[in-house]
Write a structure and sequence with these properties.
single chain
Length: 92
């Protein structure tokens, strides 16, 4: 029985050391993804805010149309494409 416990304790030590090495390797490989994922999180949060307050988008488009009618067409198309892409990304 004592021999079995010794083997189990040794195996546990090896597994704990192996998991520590794996955590270190994962942290190193995930570090390069931190900035792009943070940017994606901000984008998703912006889409959620637009979804919660769609009148803001309409207000912004109307303001652009009032201030610069010539550029309003381009911005409206850009906003429409962004809206469609956002809806597809959020699964709506």
């Amino acid at each position: 029985m004592n021999r079995t416990l010794t083997r189990l304790a040794e195996r546990r030590e090896r597994l704990v050391a192996q998991s520590a090495e794996q955590r270190t390797a994962l942290a190193k490989s995930a570090a390069s993804w931190r900035a792009p994922l943070a940017l994606a999180d901000r984008g998703v949060e912006a889409l959620r805010a637009i979804k919660r307050h769609p009148a803001w988008v309409l207000g912004a488009v109307l303001m652009l149309a009032t201030l610069r009618p010539r550029r309003a067409g381009r911005w409206t198309r850009f906003a429409w494409v962004g809206w469609q892409v956002g809806r597809k990304l959020l699964g709506r």
